[in-house]
Amino acid sequence: MVFSGMQPSGDLHLGNLLGALRPWVLDQDRYRNYFCVVDLHALSGPHDPRELAEKTRQVAALYIAAGIDPGVSTLLVQSHVPQHTELAWLLSCVTPVGWLERMTQFKDKSRRRGAERISSGLLTYPVLMAADILLYRANFVPVGEDQRQHLELTRSVARRFNRLYGEVLVLPRPRIGRRGGGARVMALDDPESKMSKSAQGEAGRIGLLDPPERVRAKVMRAKTDSGRAVDLESAGAGVANLLDIYRALTGCSREQLARQFQGQGYGHLKAAVAEVTVATLLPLQARYRELLGDRGELDRVLAEGDRRAQQVAAANLSEIRAAVGLLRPPATS
Ligand code: TRP
Prior knowledge:
Mean pLDDT: 94
Order of helices and strands: EHEHHEHHHHEHEHHHHH
Bound molecules: tryptophan
Low-confidence stretches: none
Oligomer: single chain
Distance between the termini: 34 Å
Helix content: 40-55%
Radius of gyration: 21 Å
Number of domains: 2
Largest sheet: 3 strands, parallel
Strand order of the largest sheet: 1-2-3
Number of strands: 5
């Protein structure tokens, strides 16, 4: 069983495709999968209420356009399955505040904005994430390196819960970064940092919906090393990133990469990266537009995923409720 999700905030980019969506798709037939648009998590920071619903649809459409088959995998919207928030409460009651205060993502954000300006939802964010995962008894959670600490917390919470109430929860195993099959894509304008949805400037990320001219312009302006010719052995962060992107998009071997680029100028590498990126994104964008063009159909697909998820969630949650000792609701006929 696999569970993973993305927030409907910011614009999805090539890093999300190569680091997450692609590996999800590749493993799709090997496991039962739940892929979630985690809209409730998007509420923990500033968000625009006029845009959230539309972004949620867009991310769901991008999942499908990237190759997730809603007939094979269960695609759900987090807020449509109320068991997520209920389990989050049950888990928060066994999660020490100290654990949450020690999370680096929380520390960074609260330091930047100050305790009076951040929500308590930002503190309990990892508990909701743990609930997402534990609700489905997921064994694997394919995510990026930045989520490692959240997964460790999920395991600690589950372990503690099981110690108190019996072996009810399944401890998930992380599948992180490259080990989960994903590539780590760095920002084009700052190859020491990860390509990010939230970074100020757009120059660092290739949006999944960027038109070909914009993709080409961004790649051609990508930061490289001070040298002139590609050397696979001593490539700096910028050139290495372009080589990694090329390799991830084409699936070529290191030998092929060397044959094609070793000793060549950076312009040649950039032009090649731009072309394979455009070639990957064009069909994805066409499928995306088709999906958003028929909202009725997209909504039906989402409703079916929500329904399947709710069935599993309700059955698992009722065991968890019983384990902590809550009175079973009387059966109504
Ligand atoms: N915190 C994750 C992120 O920002 C999103 C997320 C929420 C998630 N719940 C999850 C990822 C459950 C995997 C499993 O990327």
